[in-house]
Amino acid sequence: MHELTVSHIREAADYITSVTSDKPEIGLIMGSGLGILGDYIEEATVIPYHEIPHFPISTVEGHAGELMIGKLSGRTVVLMRGRFHMYEGYGPELTAFPVRVMKALGVKQLIVTNAAGGINTGFNPGDLMIITDHINLTGCNPLIGRNDEQLGARFPDMSQAYSRRLGATANEEASKLGFGLREGVYVGVLGPSYETPAEIRMMRTMGADAVGMSTVAEVIAARHSGIEVLGISCISNMASGILDQPLSHQEVIETTEKVKAQFLGLILAVIPAI
Ligand code: HPA
């Protein structure tokens, strides 16, 4: 395992602060197809990942791979256009690295979004779901290895991984915009193969409402760092075995595309309210 230390985080953060004097307060990690939120950032500083020391580089289709810093809805934000998935071959500590860099830049709150398969049969593709909690079934954890107390506790509390306060704010903003949000438990898996119907039945029995291949490592790193988290999933498809049809990445992209305007409107409304 390639260990990333405080000095790697410092070097990455120092590079970013050498490019922009903006001091981001809110971090945003956008899922498949939602990186377009970056287009709304005013006077954005755009930094390709490959320029940032120690930053991994994103490989999956639909994920650009750049950090954007600037003003969004009146707040200074840092947005990851493209994120790192463990199925791409990155270790969990690499997927969490950008979160640690955000913390070093001064980020207090993180908004994470993703596309997820609906396990709860009451959900429909296109629904947006506030993540109330997660189940980590990736078999990985970004905190494995030596713990640096400067970064966080050896055994960090995860009893409120997703802030109830931020979730309530998202609910209020959605109703002001005239739509409702689902709420539920996100189960994180390694991927990249989709689940089998038997796995989905198991996850439903466990109490999961949606499944996806991102988010959990980032959120664990955020909580370890003392960052408050708001997580929102776009239910892009019904999970395996619910409908009599195969799952495809194409379906995920198409559904995300359909609800994009609503999803982006929600994030833009939530930012000034948190
Ligand atoms: N399973 C896992 N990850 C996903 C899914 C799914 O059904 N949809 C979008 N991401």
Q: CATH homologous superfamily, by name?
A: Nucleoside phosphorylase domain
Strand order of the largest sheet: 5-8-7-6-9
Uncertain ranges:
none
Terminal Cα separation, in Å?
37 Å
Report the CATH C-level class: Alpha Beta
Bound ligands: hypoxanthine
Q: Can you write the helix and strand succession as a string?
A: HEEEEHEEHEHEHEH
CATH architecture heading: 3-Layer(aba) Sandwich
Give an overview in words.
Helix 1 (6-19) packs across helix 2 (92-105), helix 2 (92-105) packs across helix 5 and helix 3 packs across helix 6 (249-273). Strands 5-8-7-6-9 form a five-stranded mixed barrel. 31% of the residues lie in helices and 24% in strands. The model has no long low-confidence stretch (mean pLDDT 93). The chain has a single domain (6-273), classed as Rossmann fold, CATH 3.40.50. The protein has 274 residues and is α/β, with parallel strands linked by helices. Hypoxanthine is lined by residues 115-117, 194-195, 211-213, 236-237, 239, 247, 252. Residues 115-117, 194-195, 211-213, 236-237, 239, 247, 252 line the site of hypoxanthine.
Topology summary:
Elements: H1 6-19, E1 26-30, E2 42-48, E3 66-72, E4 75-81, H2 92-105, E5 109-118, E6 128-136, H3 164-177, E7 182-188, H4 197-206, E8 210-212, H5 216-224, E9 228-238, H6 249-273
Parallel strand pairs: 1-4, 1-5, 5-9, 6-7, 7-8
Antiparallel strand pairs: 2-3, 3-4, 5-8, 6-9
Helix pairs in contact: 1-2, 2-5, 3-6
Residues 115-117, 194-195, 211-213, 236-237, 239, 247, 252 line the site of hypoxanthine.
